[in-house]
Amino acid sequence: MRVPNSVVLPVGTHVDCCQEQEVAEKTRDIMARITAMLAERKSNLAHFIDNLEGSEEPKFYVDQWERLKEMDSCTLTILNLVAVNCTDHCDIKKLEATILEHVKNEELFPEVVRVLPPVYRHVEAAIMDIAQSEEMADHGMMDLQYLLSKLSQHKHLASLGRELLQDILRYLHRIGLVVWYEEIKHLESTVFLQPTFLITMFKLLVRYRLVQQLESIS
Q1: What is the Cα gyration radius of the chain?
Q2: pLDDT digits over 26-80, tens only?
Q3: How far does CA 139 lie from the centroid of its chain?
Q4: For residue 17, what pLDDT is reported?
Q5: Rounded distance, CA 218 to CA 210, Å?
Q6: Among residues 122, 125, 130, 120, which one has the least CA distance to residue 193?
Q7: Which of 10, 59, 137, 140 is deepest in the core (most CB within 10 A)?
């Protein structure tokens, strides 16, 4: 709700636990709740903005007013909910196809047709080579400066600078090829070339009923 031009695809899981009629009813209910939530948010923002504009000393609230106006101008596109049975491979493929169909929609994602500089492609290919090399550890973690030195050894990338690499890593992070938490101080110098490692680690640490499982151990 705070990111300009966001596109959200609601996904309903556990279809296998519901009757067909239930799935249709729950889908309508969820979409109605989302619509109501967005309308309430819009109304609340308008109310807060009006209050600030009508205050006795509006100049003291300029920062808040600008922030609220910025949030009010953010568009949010909600796509139709997709109901899936996560135990059914066909449903997973259906979800994948739906996501790809939406992502290729130029009206939803105008930047999908943006042409990237060749260096982006060269860096992406080089990072994939490094990630798949035998010397790469299973965790796929690599120091940012060391990654830069490794990339500089590749053809076309001898003059690659740290600032340009960071711009490219932001792009690769957005598309999910790598994970780079530049906003976290302790992780800003670490690039995860194997995002699946993080998923595996989180699955071990973040579990359903984890507290109860731990308490059950004598």
Answers
A1: 23
A2: 999 999 999 999 899 889 888 888 888 887 777 777 888 888 888 788 778 999 9
A3: 21
A4: 92
A5: 15
A6: 130
A7: 140
Using alpha carbons only, what angle is made at residue 104 by residues 102 and 109, rounded to the nearest 5 degrees?
A: 80
Amino acid at 76: L
Residue 144, burial from CB neighbour count under 10 angstroms (0-12, 13-18, 19+): middle
85 is written with which tokens? 């049975």
| Mean pLDDT for the stretch of residues 103-115 | 81
Helices (H) and strands (E) in the chain, counts: 8, 6
pLDDT band for 130, please (50, 70, 90 cuts).
Answer: very high
CA dihedral 151, 147, 112, 102 (to 10 degrees): 130
**What domains, with CATH codes, occur in the chain?**
7-104 (no CATH), 118-201 (1.10.10.10)
Phi, psi of 78 (to 5 degrees): -105, 120
